[in-house]
Write a structure and sequence with these properties.
It is built from 27 helices and 26 strands. A hairpin with a 2-residue loop joins strand 2 and strand 3. The chain is of the alpha+beta class and 787 residues long.
Length: 787
């Protein structure tokens, strides 16, 4: 193994372990460990084995320490996140960057300087992301802004498999967010000082406006994404369209764009360079011109938003230019590893950015298979040869990035390989050059730029229609897949073996590990487990029997439409928990905070039955449609208790209260599950009348784990149930700092007085209760593990 690759592996290993570390369990001065290892390595570095071991330990500890400190920074009294809370405050700061977030929505990152209320201000530090439900036209880096809003600390829901938003924002140094409904609430009280970044931002904004005016309809966001790197301008449906067709990578500014720009400028400058006899005698053009082009490429990097994939491409151009100038030859894998190491030394949290991972994985795949695509064709006719090379290059990039695409997006497009053959030539040789020329001429010849942008949009429209048609063919559409960690690791190892030549012994060991991950079921013995997902102000609970059969009770849901709990939280969580089939899905009652997340799950997962107590005419049209389209059997329950045999050693039953004349909450279906000496009762949003009816039946006789009804509201049947059963464990599903101030302090006090332990999804995250019939083992999801 080359030294730089070994260094990279040790450093990346330390970064990967960092998020799983419990910071509170570390020694107070744990960050001194690398300083202790450094002199030891310096002393033993000439000895092969101890020197290598100490170097690996040193790099691992450095990366681990940096990851822990960056993800859990020490508290500072001047940090702006100290002012996060339920009360709005006035905030002042300086704009760092402005990004589109769909049509007429924006994200503004700024450095906070003051925060206060009623004329009393305090000096603060830290970056804030402001979500503006309006267009931020005219706002530029350096502008001084002021607004009044509530500040929120970045936090996850605490659900397995969810996108880690706090870590994503920590990469940009952001730990606090705010929201404004419209631009009028944002005051620009001072313009920024003139500078390069401000001029480039103004140019970029002018190009965006010109594109919107030049290109009619829905194609403008695609042109903006391709030419200016404004992927945020794409709506959710447009992003899904690209992902389903397998061509989303073409709309990320990367090596393709920089390579074309560099090639065009090189060809433009080469004849001029050859005109000078002095320059030719000094150095050949291929050693000088790449260095000359770097400032232009750097300007394009800034113009297109300084994205990670563009930075990686620019870093590659920089290294190649330096090596050409110094006449040094470096193997492509070593060059790629060196660039990745430099990136991670400067920005450790870039490792978890999807763009970083996909960019380097794609480049790694292409480099690893260069022995195949470079030698294709021989003397074959040029178009056929280039087409075959493009096919193999696309296959290499798609295969290498498949594990990461599944990890981040849970989707794979079988049409991607064919669509790349269709899309890459016209995008590379027509759309990108037209877009780049449009940007270059926009400020001098806007009429010409208008024509060029329009031409770019026509090419893209043709490409997208063609790729949509291919993706619509039977068997080529996008597949949604939610893997467990073991399954994903098996895919990653399989792909790794395709690209990395290993010695026979190492390859055999990797194959054995792959076989074990695929074939060995990680199942427990006879047990009953309950997983209460943290889904905000809603509710969704998974009942598992012997870790092999599952019933999902409710699917959560937020009252807005911008966040699908089923897609964003529950589906990844089920995949992470190795649940690929739901034997039944039960809707306790038809309220959005219990039902909205079910639509996506019923569409994407294998479901045995849908259980409900009312008529399907009562549920939403979207829910009825997915049940019909997926042909999911519906089982209706009626008034009273219904025993449900067939769940192993677990006794399962549901209770339906009287429905006539009662509110929807008071119609909630109740679930009872018992194993040995333990019993759990799930009560939906049951209110006092139906709770009294439930208790009058005398079932169940004992409850050791109670799901408190209606998120802990004092108007629910919580008091009756707590007094009747005195459960050892009580669970409430609520949103963090919800506006209803649930659970009620009255209910919390009742649980405390009864001697029980109250668990809350807003504070504890996703909770797991496991029993073999004798007591409950309780764990909560934290830092990627149930602890």
């Amino acid at each position: 193994m080359q030294p730089v690759i070994g260094i990279l592996v040790a450093y990346v290993a330390g970064l990967l372990v960092g998020p799983f570390i419990d910071v509170e369990a570390l020694p107070q001065r744990f960050w001194l460990i690398p300083f202790a290892l450094l002199p030891l390595w310096l002393f033993f570095r000439q000895r092969r084995i101890p020197g290598t071991v100490l170097l690996v330990m040193l790099l691992f500890s450095i990366a681990l320490t940096r990851a822990v400190l960056l993800l859990s920074p020490p508290q500072d009294l001047s940090r702006i996140d100290r002012y996060a809370g339920s009360d709005p405050v006035v905030v002042e700061g300086t704009v760092i960057r402005v990004q589109a977030s769909g049509r007429d929505r924006s994200r503004i990152d700024f450095a906070a300087q003051k925060v206060g209320e009623r004329g009393i201000f305090a000096q603060v530090t830290g970056h804030v992301r402001l979500y503006l439900a309006d267009d931020a036209a005219g706002l530029l880096p350096g502008d001084r802004i002021r607004f009044r809003s509530r500040l929120r600390r970045t936090r996850s829901f605490g659900t397995p498999g969810e996108f880690d938003m706090p870590r994503h924002l920590a990469y940009s140094g952001i730990w606090t967010t705010a929201y404004l409904p419209d631009r009028s609430a944002l005051v620009v009280y001072a313009d920024g000082a003139p500078g390069l970044l401000r001029s480039i931002a103004r140019w970029r904004h002018a190009c965006s406006i010109l594109i919107e005016r030049s290109v009619e309809g829905a194609m403008a966001p695609f042109v903006r994404a391709l030419t200016l790197g404004e992927r945020g301008a794409l709506e959710v449906d447009q992003r899904r369209r690209l992902a389903a067709s397998g061509v989303a990578h073409l709309f990320a500014i990367s090596g393709l764009h920089l390579g074309l720009l560099a090639l065009f400028l090189y060809r433009l400058l080469l004849p001029l360079y050859r005109q000078s006899r002095h320059l030719l005698l000094w150095k050949p053009p291929r050693r000088v011109l790449p260095i000359v082009l770097l400032p232009v490429l750097f300007g394009y990097l800034l113009l297109t938003g300084d994205a990670l994939s563009t930075r990686r491409a620019f870093a590659a151009c920089l290294c190649v230019a330096v090596f050409l100038l110094s006449r040094r030859q470096v193997a492509p894998p070593i060059l790629l590893a060196s660039i990745a190491l430099i990136f991670l030394l400067l920005e450790p949290l870039a490792l978890w950015q999807a763009s970083f991972q996909l960019s380097f994985a794609g480049a790694f795949g292409i480099i690893s298979w260069r022995r195949y695509w470079q030698n294709i064709g021989g003397s074959t006719w040029w178009p056929i040869k280039k087409g075959a090379q493009l096919l193999v290059v696309s296959l290499a990039a798609i295969t290498a990035t498949t594990p990461l695409v599944l990890l981040h997006f849970h989707q794979i497009s079988l049409a991607g390989l064919l669509n790349n053959l269709i899309a890459i030539p016209p995008v590379t040789f027509l759309a990108v050059p037209l877009g780049l020329l449009g940007v270059a001429t926009s400020s001098v010849f806007p009429a010409v730029a208008t024509f060029l942008f329009l031409g770019c949009s026509l090419v893209l429209e043709f490409v997208l229609r063609a790729t949509d048609w291919v993706a619509s063919l039977s068997g080529l559409g996008a597949m949604t897949i939610y893997f467990s960690r073991g399954e994903w690791l098996a895919v990653a190892i399989g792909v790794f073996l395709l690209f990395v030549p290993l010695r026979r012994g190492y390859r055999a060991a990797a194959m054995l590990l792959l076989l074990a991950l695929v074939s060995v079921p990680l199942r427990g013995g006879t047990r009953l487990s309950l997983t209460a997902f943290s889904v905000g102000q809603g509710e969704s609970i998974l009942i598992s029997f012997d870790d092999s059969r599952h019933i999902l009770v409710d699917g959560g849901g937020l009252y807005g439409d911008s966040f699908d709990v089923g897609e964003r939280l529950l589906a990844p969580a089920l995949g992470a928990l190795d649940v690929d089939r739901l034997d039944a899905v039960l809707l306790t009652h038809n309220h959005p905070d219990h039902s909205k997340g079910l639509v996506y799950l019923l569409d994407k997962f294998s479901v045995g039955q849908f259980w409900y107590a009312g008529s399907l005419d009562d549920v939403t049209a979207a829910l009825r449609q997915v049940l019909t389209v997926r042909n999911i059997p519906v089982r209706q329950f009626f008034h009273g208790w219904t025993d449900l045999p067939g769940w192993g050693s677990v006794e399962l039953a549901v209770f339906v209260p009287r429905r006539e004349g009662r509110a929807e909450n008071d119609r909630s279906v109740v679930v009872s599950a018992s194993l040995g000496q333990e019993s759990v009762l799930l009560t939906g949003d049951l209110e006092q009348t139906s709770t009294a009816e439930l208790l009058s039946t005398g079932r169940p006789a004992l409850v050791s784990l109670l799901k408190i009804p209606h998120h802990g509201s004092r108007h629910s049947g919580a008091q009756q149930l707590i007094e009747a059963y005195s459960p050892a464990h009580a669970l409430v599903s609520v949103g963090y700092r919800n506006r209803y101030r649930l659970p009620s302090s009255t209910v919390s006090a009742l649980v405390d007085r009864s001697g029980g332990q109250l668990y809350r999804t807003d504070l504890d995250g996703t909770l797991r209760f496991v029993s073999s019939g004798f007591g409950w083992e309780v764990k909560h999801w934290e830092n990627g593990l149930f602890r």
